[in-house]
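COURSE: Structural Biology Practicum
ASSIGNMENT: Worksheet 4, Part C
STUDENT ID: 0417
INSTRUCTIONS: Below are two proteins. For each, the amino acid sequence is given first, followed by its structure token string. Answer the questions at the end about the second protein only.

PROTEIN I
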Amino acid sequence: MRKIYLHVALMLFGIIGVKAQSKSQIAIADSTNYKSSKLKLDEVNFVSSYYHQNGNNSAVTGGIGTEKLTDFANTFDVQVSKLNKNGRKNTLLFEIGIDHYSSASSDKIDPSTISSASSADTRVYPSINWSQSNETTGNSFGFTGSYSSEYDYQSMGAAFNLTRLSNNKNTQFDFKLQAFLDSWTVILPIELRTGNGKSNEESGGGTSPRNSFSTSFSLSQVINQRLQAAVIVEPAYQHGLLATKYQRNYFTDGSMRAETLPNSRYKLPIALRLNYFPDDRFIVRAFYRYYMDNWGIRAHTAELEVPVKLSSFISVSPFYRYNKQTGTKYFAPYGQHNPEAAYFTSDYDLSTLNSDFYGIGIRLSPPKGVFGLQRLNMLELRYGHYSRSTKLTSNIISLNLKFK
């Protein structure tokens, strides 16, 4: 069920990305004259979003039926820091997220019930990050631990990150290593469960592991005063139960089985990011990514965002993203799977498609605080509309508040 958070995560990532970029522009302080300092509260962030989608290609019912879904997501984080005796800055970031969704398609896992347990769920995901940075060189490293839990899914994660800057600060290398060890309950459609004349293998039950490992290599370069570029490579590997077993698949002979996919997957996204500053009022942010995996999926994604500063503390950011995807060889629509196939899915997220995502954001950061509240340093509101060739559409609105 985790894939339903895709569009929410994309929007939250966009907001967080803007926040991260503003941090990188802070002038590096001189820490040579160290003075004993107490733990300092750097900032507090609250991000809330509401997401709604609709469509008629539900994978739960074999590629047909409602995809109506709503999700209300909230994250809250607190960042504190302290200089040690060597002038190194130690930073702790505590974050907790709570999402609640309702899904009409998930309610079809067992349509004989008034409302199945999986028709709505709440996900809780706390994390903690510790990092140490050299305020003079800009170099840093850190570790992250995370946990996520929902009705049929639990995940434990760990990560290591490293940043190195050149002597003139014009070149930056970032490395990140992540691992997620997941366990989720095997839930089958009601027709395939024990007690309906099915074998133990068909009925499933219990829990199965799914482990994910990924790395990220990023090289950023200041080309001149107006242009910055970055190349990003993010290889990943997954192993375990990668199929969603409560999703039905229908075959040309009239039979039905639970989705079955290979138990390993390699992914390789390669991206290029360009930031251009034509003057003090405009920024042009361009992004391109090519994606490939061993399931046969190939995708091209292009994105453009143009923040415009209306005044010293108000800016608007229209954005547009286009995606074109060649689907996996294991996909087929309702009733078109070959009965002799070893792997099969009718999940349209894995099909051949193209999509558009566009919207606008507005950001307020007055010197005396938002609405005159000195501690409320920044308010950002973003809206996005998503549509794709499979007729799925969605809307999302997000609010980001920063307190300092």
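PROTEIN II
(use this one for the questions)
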Amino acid sequence: MLSLSQISLTQFKNYTHRTLRFDRRITGITGRNGSGKTNLLDAIYYLCFSKSYFSTAESQNVRYDTNGFRLEGLFLRGGKEEKVVCTVKEGKKEISLNGDSYEKFSRHIGQFPAVMIAPDDAEIILGGSEDRRRWLDALLSQLLPGYLDHLIAYHKVLQQRNSLLKNMPQMSHSPDPLLDVFDQQLVRHGVPVFEARKSFLEGFIERVQDRYDYLAGRHETVAFRYQSQLHEQSLEKLLSANRLRDKQVQRTTQGIHRDDLLFLLDEHPMKTSASQGQRKSFLFALKLAQFEAIREHKGFPPILLLDDVFEKLDQERVTRLIALVQGPGYGQVFITDTHAARLREAFAGQPEVLQLVEMQAEPLSADQAADQGDEE
């Protein structure tokens, strides 16, 4: 079993300093908009993944007018207490587990598995291919040792290859030993990523279909196609055949960094043909199937983070979702809502599992208030 028993936030986003303790299986986080509910979920996510779910730049995670932040979490894993500390100061990040700092942050991924479901997740369906690859890579990084290392190495080599291509004669047919080395490295790290994606996705859709039918309350056929150039030809041959073209456009046009997922509803692209309700059902089904895949692989349920689901789902779907997370097979759940009464009502059947934590927005400094006024 995995759970978070305590978290301390210092200068993280809108927090100056706060320590919270969690003693129930389900924690309802309530408060007005802007009080820090989502930021608390993001802090928990950060402790599990060594990065924010919402912000790519570390500067966006630091409280206004400070130069860093610190997060500390006490987890219970297999009956043993584990302490995770994440600090960012003046742009330098450090992450430690039980006092030992990681040399590679990738070693932390999968230690404390978690699944986040948030409003912005709609981009997995509506956004570009990068959003879908990011979702899939985050999932597989928690399941497969070595996957993230291959992915990181691939993108490092890809960046080096692209940099070389920008400085090469565009019409040159002459051999280039350095480009040959980069191609070999892309094959070495790219093929395992492709094989892992392909193998995992083949059976995953069955889980998604099952969760979709449950949430939607009816059956509609959902599917997805893994779109990759490597289905048709080996990566080695693709890179060789497109070398001249790569020189002309000054970037690597073939490889796993171009992979995509096509989501389908009754054999039609979900991005353009599904209703808003259908897309929401599919999105939640995707994340719940992700949760189940991690639970099966790890032997215990990951932490589930649900942001603003009452505002984003209709009552019928919310009722089914709440019934699901209260049932067997689910562990610690954090769920945000602006209305404490609505959370109490949702878990009225099992009030003993629910802990309510009320958030209150900290007062703005004079500079922050002035900046907010400028933005308005």
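ANSWER KEY EXCERPT:
Q1: Residues 210 and 285 are 8 Å apart (CA to CA).
Q2: Confidence is low (pLDDT under 50) at residues 365-376.
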